[in-house]
Amino acid sequence: MEGVMMKNQDTYAIAVRKPNNEIVVEKNTHKNFSDKVKLFKLPIFRGMIVFVDSLVIGLKALNYSASFFEDEEEQNKDKKKNKEKDKKKEKKKAEQSNALMMAAAVILSIGLSIALFMVLPVLISGIFSKLVTNHYALTLMEGLIRLAIFIGYVLIASQMSEIKRVFMYHGAEHKTINCVENGFELTVENVRWQSKQNKRCGTSFMLFVMVISLIIFLFLPSGNLGWRILTRVLLIPVISGISYEFIRFAGKTDNVVLNFLSKPGLLMQGLTTKEPDDSMIEVAIKSVEAVFDWQAFLEASEKKTEGKRIGKKARKPARKKEANKAGSAPKDRKTEKPEAAVKAAEVEAETKAKDEIAAASLKNSKEDRTKKAANAGGSKESTHNKSLNQKQASQAQTEKENEAAKTSPSAVVSDPAEEEDDEILKALDKYLDV
Question: Kind of pairing, strands 3-8 and 23-29?
Fold first, then answer.
């Protein structure tokens, strides 16, 4: 009663605080039935035998812890009797009687569990079979009754003072396991603030047995009362196997869905686990240390985390190189459009510049033409004026010559060369006028 049992593979240890405040630890080995029959190492099948193995070890732990709280008078009487008789024979008889008592206790516990949680809900729901004729509704009622019986049983047991202390040791067990799994040294100070909930707890296992049985029984064909009781009893191993696989997987996996489905079991542990005192935590620590080297475990976990960190740092440059190699093609594809747009803009700017230059040159050429035309017009006018002046001057000269010829005697005879010159001058004047 005043102790904690821890199991690691085939080894288990029971740490008990004696009435004189001394902590005693007993370490034993337990061969599972699955070691003899390999079939029970397979999924679903291994869960069928876990309940029986846990029950056997639990009863051994209870017997061992209870043995320290017998009356001192009875212990003294036993010691006196043992002195008078052969000690070897007494040990053999004690072992045989303990084995028989253990087998009887296991059979009785299994029988009471089946009767209380499987048969009784069928009988109670059978009372309403005349009112509820639908098979699914009746099966659902049976499952709810089964769940109510289980919760009521735990609530009633938790009110007993002896069971309250058992639940406090149960909380110390969970806190100690969580402390190691969270990577902290196993000290009273570290264990004290840990959670008293654990996904792999037997309370969660029993609750899932109730819930999964409800789901499975819904798909069974309807029948009379005997059929219903028989199917419930025969399917207990299958339901236990499925429930065990679920809590086993949920305990190893941190998943949002599994965490949500595990919540009911964790809430149920609020009834079966209580806050322990420091003396109970010390007992739980002794029990863990007897079967598990937590210091080596923490060192190995630290090395793993350091190795992961180093591996991540080493992988970062390699990932960058791979990303650069693998991502070069997509990057080019992504930048194809911007580069093409830039090139098109450049070409467009060039064409605009060329057009502007061409327009400017065309404008300049037009201006030059107009200027040339204006200059040409001005020069033509100036030449025309010059020709008029020359004509006037030539006419005045001819008039003077004619007058002189008239007055001079030699002028009576006309010179043919002069006449020819006069005709040339006249033709030139006509050309200039045009």
Answer: unpaired
